Amino acid sequence: MNEAQIENMLRGRAMERIAVPGERDAAVLIPLVEKAGETCILFEIRNASIAQGGEICFPGGQIEPDELPEKAAVRETIEELALAETQVSVMAPLFEMTGPGGRRVSAFLGEVKNYRDTWSASEVERIFLLPIDELLACEPLTHDDWMVTVTDDDFPYELIPGGREYPFRKIPRRFYFYKTKYGVIWGLTAELLYRFLELLRQQGGE
Q1: N or C, which terminus of the chain has less Cβ within 10 Å?
Q2: How do residues 28-45 score in pLDDT, each as one tens digit?
Q3: Nearest to 200 by CA among 41, 34, 70
Q4: pTM score over 0.90
Q5: Which element (helix H / strand E) includes 107?
């Protein structure tokens, strides 16, 4: 096989992203709800029987094959909050970031209309609302740390330069923590919340 053959084979090819094995990209919605004249953000507390049970999160989940991230965020919100399709609309794309597990997470801002405290009990333990103005007035606790590569005992160190002394990269990461009366918001949810609130402040929302 020569260069011309290879070029012909790959001409017009779009860049392909290689995902983490066994992981699909995910999408979440930061849902806005109007209550008693205030604009609030809706949070879920995950059902104890599912992964990361008891943690606070935004509606969202894995993107199905051939599904657009925005559609996935809306679909998951409808399923988790037991809503009609007409109740959910996307207001704006917000962020695309890499989660701790390596998968790409797309976040959108959305509106939930006529919300009546509904949710799917199989996925959600309960929900709560926090006013935007209240969240803008508080600062999260932060902690700077590292994400590191952890290898198994049978890792083939003999195949890499330096063996067990190989300098695997340590990835710096800032963790955010919001203390609320419903529990602590942390992890990816807290980071997305922080970025969103900072975006509002930059746009004059404070």
Answers
A1: N
A2: 999 999 999 999 999 999
A3: 41
A4: no
A5: strand 104-112
